[in-house]
Specification:
single chain; 254 residues; mainly alpha
Length: 254
């Protein structure tokens, strides 16, 4: 009996369910104990948290752009573009001022035959549309060749040139009225000359407002170069264009 009890305490030769001192406490090959697995995942989580902190810091600080050659080059190009824009705005302002001075004689001449806000007077002695065309051509010439500028600059420049060209068209319409026989055709052409003059003044007003904005952005302050519709008129630079198109003017032309 004693021998049987001793045998029951011996570990099984096949690694079975032996009890007592015969059982091994080491994990099977290829397996880790639960404490070791927890330690591994804790280390992974800590590493990921540290990585997120580094990424967040780079985002908040701009990713170290201070030492980025590409960012430095972009900043350099932007500075050059800003300097070029400032120079172009100054040149355009000088050109607009010179053109404005030459156009005042055209405004005065047209007002004598087609007064702003009043019925047309008709052909009068002393009216010289040929000199008006000369003044218009000289005003266009002050702007020279178109430079490479921003969209805002190009829009402003084109608006000023459009206004000048419309004044030239008003002079042409008056020439047609002078050549037409007295009657409905002459009256129509005189009215057309007046409307073209009003459109020219309105177009100049829009472009001059944009020129004012360009000068403010360039650090030059306000620049008001307004074109009146009649001699001596005080134009509010922020009062609108003073011209409203009419739908009726474009009806019954078939």
């Amino acid at each position: 009996m004693a021998n049987r009890r001793d045998e029951s305490r011996r570990p099984s030769a096949r690694g079975g369910r032996g009890t007592g001192a015969g059982r091994s406490s080491s994990p099977a090959p290829g397996q880790e104990s639960p404490p070791r697995r927890r330690a591994f995942w804790i280390a992974v989580a800590a590493a990921l948290a540290a990585l997120n902190i580094v990424l967040a810091t780079l985002v908040l600080t701009g990713g170290g752009d201070d030492d980025d050659p590409l960012a430095d080059r972009v900043a350099e190009l932007e500075a050059q573009e800003e300097a070029n824009q400032t120079e172009l705005v100054g040149q355009l302002t000088e050109q607009a001022t010179a053109a404005h001075a030459g156009l005042l004689s055209v405004i005065a001449g047209l007002h004598a035959v087609v007064p702003s806000g009043a019925p047309p007077v008709g052909p009068v002695a002393g009216a010289d549309p040929a000199s008006w065309h000369t003044a218009v051509g000289a005003a266009i010439g002050t702007f020279g060749d178109a430079p490479s500028g921003s969209t805002e600059f190009n829009t402003t420049r084109n608006g000023l040139l459009l206004a000048i060209d419309l004044l030239g068209s008003a002079a042409t319409a008056y020439e047609g009225a002078v050549a037409a026989p007295d009657g409905a055709e002459r009256d129509r052409l005189l009215e057309l000359a007046g409307r073209l003059r009003d459109q020219a003044v309105a177009a100049w007003s829009v472009a001059a407002t944009q020129l004012d904005v360009l000068n403010i952005d360039a650090g030059n302050g306000h620049v008001h170069i307004t074109l009146p519709s009649r001699p001596g008129e005080q134009v509010d630079p922020h009062g609108g264009v003073g011209f409203e198109p009419s739908q009726e003017d474009h009806e019954n032309h078939t």
